[in-house]
Every structure is written in C-alpha cells, then in structure tokens.
Amino acid sequence: MSRCSKFFTIVSASFIVSAAVSCNRGPAPLKQPYIDASSAGKMAMEQYDKDGDGKVAGAELDHAPALKAAIKNLDTDSDGGVSAAEVTERVNAWKAMETALASVQCRVTLDGEPLAGATVTFEPESFLGDAVKHAIGTTNPYGMVSPSVPVDERPDPKSPGGAHFGLYKVRISKMVNGKETLPARYNTDTTLGQEVSYDDPGVKNRNVIYALKSGG
Fold first, then answer.
1. CATH no. of 101-212
2. What is the rounded CA–CA span in Å between residue 114 and residue 85?
3. 96-114, pLDDT tens digit by residue?
C-alpha cells in the first residue's frame, strides 16, 4: 500500500472540497463542523422571533440578515417566514452534502465601481454553535475576494482555505487612516447576509455580489 493516499470529493465544477489530501506530510482530513440541527432551530427562534409566533418573518427578517439572504432555501412551506423546523431541516441538508468547505467567490462594488482593499468577514450565526468558524478576506483591485477560515483556526495549517457551510452575517469594512469609510449598514450594523452551501445560486455560480452604496 502506498504511504501516501489521496481522497477528493469535488462538487459543481471543482469549487467545493469535502476532503483533503491525506499523506505523510499532508493536511489532516477535513470534516464538517458539528452543528446540533435541532438546537440550531430552537436558538434561532429565541434570538430572532421577537413576537413569539413561531417564525422569523416580516420586520424580524430585517434584523436577521443571514436568514433573510437564505429565505428561498429556508422557507420550504412558502409562508414568508423561517421556523425552527425549517432551520433544522436546512442544517440537515448541509450535512447530507458531506462537504467541509466551499470556495465563495465574491465581488464587492461601491457605487458601481470595484471596491479594493475592503475586509470582508463572514460571521457565522451564533445559533449554529462554535464549530462553524468565521471566514475573512481582503478584496483585490478588482473588488474580488474569497473569504477563508483563518489558518490558525483550521484543524491543520496545511488544510485548504474556504468557508464552512452555514448562515452568516456579512461585514464589509474599509478603514482609511483609522476611520471607517463605509456606512454602518455594511459593517457594525450590517444588513448583509449569506448562506454558504453548494446549492446557493451565488456560491454555485461563483458570483456572489455585494453592491454597496455610499451615503445614507
């Protein structure tokens, strides 16, 4: 038997990786972060269902940008809201994909022009637990970025980059001389959200776009 074995699972044009190379000096095999699906659903309601009607809907979604961004995948009964059961169902759907990381290619513009040098952070929803890590990256001169779990938070520093499947608040910041240049609605009080999964249209098509506007 060879001293070096390799195992790959590639989904949708080679941009989703569910297992890493396993060799003498290679990275440790990648595993999905553990999420308690049932608890995630219950905690999502505790966090965002302010009127206690059993779903996050209407104005509540404005305070839950990750749920709002993923509403088409979450709202399986088409009632315009997200229930605990629907969050649980979605977490189980990610698990069935058996994928550890996704490469999410994003393009950030400001008033229609590429925004270079902006920090893009995918902040996982707390109801998913501690195993889903944040992903971060800086846009290039063309406004492009692929946020990744920081090296020091990966199970092995040799592991490939990417973002865990999950629901995220997205924070985009550009500091100049120690001052934030973007409106708070894109960072400290973000209204941006993202689902990372291979069936999210933006992720699947490598075309996640954040079209920011300056001013109020």
1. 2.60.40.10
2. 39
3. 998 888 999 999 999 999 9
Contact 130, 79 (CB under 8 A): no
For the entire predicted model, the pTM comes to 0.87
CA dist., res. 17 & res. 25, Å (int) = 19
Which residues are registered as beta bridge partners of 175?
Answer: 180
**Residues contacting residue 157 through CB under 8 Å, at least 6 positions apart:** 27, 151
Domain boundaries of the chain, sorted by first residue: 37-95, 101-212
Q: Copy the structure tokens of residue 130.
A: 């501690």
pLDDT digits (tens, 9 = 90+) for 28-55: 667 899 999 999 999 999 999 999 999 9
**In terms of CATH, what superfamily is 37-95?**
EF-hand (1.10.238.10)
Q: Is 87 helix (H, G, I), strand (E, B) or coil?
A: helix
- CB burial of 9-43 (b: ≥16 within 10 Å; e: otherwise) equals eebeeebbbbbbbeeeeebeebebbebebebbbeb
Are 138 and 117 a contacting pair, CB within 8 Å?
A: yes
Cα–Cα dist 126/128, whole Å: 5
C-alpha span between 189 and 32 (Å, rounded):
29
Looking at residue 28, what is its pLDDT?
A: 61
Q: What is the per-residue DSSP string for 105-153?
A: -EEEEETTEE--S-EEEEEE-GGG-SSSPPEEEE--TTSEE--B--GGG
